Amino acid sequence: MAKRLFDCLSALLALILLSPLLVSSAIGVRLCSAGPALYRARRIGVGGREFVMYKFRTMHVATRPGSVITASSDPRVFALGKILRAMKIDELPQLWNVVRGEMSVVGPRPEDPRIVLQHFGPLGMETLSVRPGLASPGSLYNYTHGNSMVDQNDPEAAYVRDLLPVKLALELVYVRHRSLRYDLLIILRTAITIFQIGMGRKLFPEPPEMTAARVILRENAAFLVKDASLHPAPPQT
Q1: pLDDT at residue number 229
Q2: SS3 state of residue 123
Q3: Is 79 exposed, middle or buried (0-12, 13-18, 19+ CB in 10 A)?
Q4: What is the Cα–Cα distance from 222 to 228, expressed in whole angstroms?
Q5: Is the whole-model pTM more than 0.85?
Q6: Which of 25, 144, 149, 189 qualifies as a FRET site for 203, CA 20 to 30 Å off?
Q7: How far is Cα 63 from Cα 83, in angstroms, rounded to an integer?
Q8: DSSP string over 156-221
Q9: What averages of pLDDT result for each successive group of 10 residues across the chain (237 residues)?
């Protein structure tokens, strides 16, 4: 109950305070690329229920379906879209998903239905026991390390093979230790990381949850992601 109240109040306050940025971003998207300002993405939420997640559109409208995973140099992303993605501004419309009760401010990042159906193992499904969120240990790791792990030629295969197991292990650490204090810490870490990337920082240390995540990967990889035995744990850095 306390988490839901915190989510609603913080999301409503953020929508009000950030309304000039939201409006200007929506106008900018429409001016830079023909099509709607918002992208409606199908995602899997708490309990395995599908919902529509809102984002500012950062890619040109496609004439045919493409990969659900975006590589760092994906030609579908237009110039303003790259900035919106780099600063995580494209995710801000999800504050409305938080108000609606489909998402939380902090929680495991929601995945595409096909990724969940084809690749989530039993432990991966455990991350669906709570509302998905805008920020999480897994999303932070993806933000700071994901680009180097996603192959440009086949981003979806590289994502499933190399990044998804690590993300799910990190999300599982969050799910098993979640608290309001932990949520506030993740929000702070996310804000600091976005600021540092905006200032040009490129290299980041691994998240503090990585030690526990490696234990999960080493001992339960086969239950985290289907065929996860083929996916090595991330190297020590």
Answers
A1: 47
A2: helix
A3: exposed
A4: 5
A5: yes
A6: 25
A7: 23
A8: HHHIIIIIHHHHHHHHHHHHHH--HHHHHHHHHHHHHHHHHHHTT----PPPTTHHHHHHHHHHHH
A9: 93 97 97 95 97 96 71 81 95 98 98 95 95 97 86 80 94 96 97 96 95 93 72 52
Beta strands in 3-49 (DSSP E): 38-44
Instruction: Tokens for 165, please give them.
Output: 């197991």
Separation between Cα atoms, residue 47 and residue 234, nearest integer Å: 29
The answer to whether 22 and 15 are in contact (CB under 8 A) is yes
> Can you read off the two tokens belonging to residue 107?
């929680």
What's the rounded Cα separation, in Å, for the pair 71 and 83? 15
| Residue type (1 letter), 43 | R
- b/e per residue, 140-152, with b = 16+ CB within 10 A? bbbbbbbeebbee
Tokens of residue 20, six digits? 């000039």
* Three-class SS state of 44: strand
Distances (CA, A) of 177 to 49, 137, 216: 23, 12, 14
C-alpha–C-alpha distance, residues 149 and 100, integer Å: 33
Residues forming beta bridges with residue 135, ordered by sequence position: 106
Token representation of residue 162: 């190399």
Report d(CA 15, CA 97) in Å as an integer.
11
CA atoms within 13 A on the CB side of 216: 24
83: burial class by Cβ within 10 Å (0-12, 13-18, 19+)? middle
